[in-house]
Design a protein that fits this description.
The protein is mainly beta and about 130 residues long. About 5% of the residues lie in helices and about 45% in strands. The relative contact order is 0.30.
């Protein structure tokens, strides 16, 4: 069974960079057709897909975030990370990492992925609350 665990600071100041790490067990980040996502849920709102890193290292982002996020991975530690720069209070949310299975990386439809319901993901982390405030 694949397990994911988010870690990182719970409080970030405005204009700073939010950095979170997801530690994965039960599967390798390089397992073919596995996609490792970051998703958030602001208070009172639905899930927002932020981006993903594929098994081959290809990265995908939601364009509405305007190049603010960056996703990277450390295969030796089986971890992947999210860095979100220039945060504002609007970035306050519960942040999740999650796994889904997809096609080969060149064929991934990010428009579809951005609208996927929770049930279409294979595994989720428990989530971590991040508040942006001075």
């Amino acid at each position: 069974q694949v397990q994911l665990q988010e870690s990182g600071p719970h409080l970030v100041e405005p204009s700073e960079t939010l950095s979170l790490t997801c530690t994965v067990s039960g599967a390798s980040l390089t397992t073919t057709l596995h996609y490792w996502s970051w998703i958030r849920q602001p208070p009172g709102r639905g899930l927002e897909w932020m981006g993903a890193i594929a098994y081959d290292g290809t990265t995908y982002y939601d364009p509405s975030l305007k190049s603010r996020p960056s996703i990277s991975r450390d295969t030796s530690r089986n971890q992947f990370s999210l860095h979100l720069n220039s945060v504002t209070p609007y970035d306050t949310a519960v942040y999740y990492c999650a796994l889904f299975f997809g096609p080969t990386s060149s064929r991934l439809n990010t428009d579809y992925v951005s609208r996927m319901p929770r049930s279409e993901y294979n595994s989720w982390g428990q989530g971590t609350q991040v508040t942006v405030s001075s």
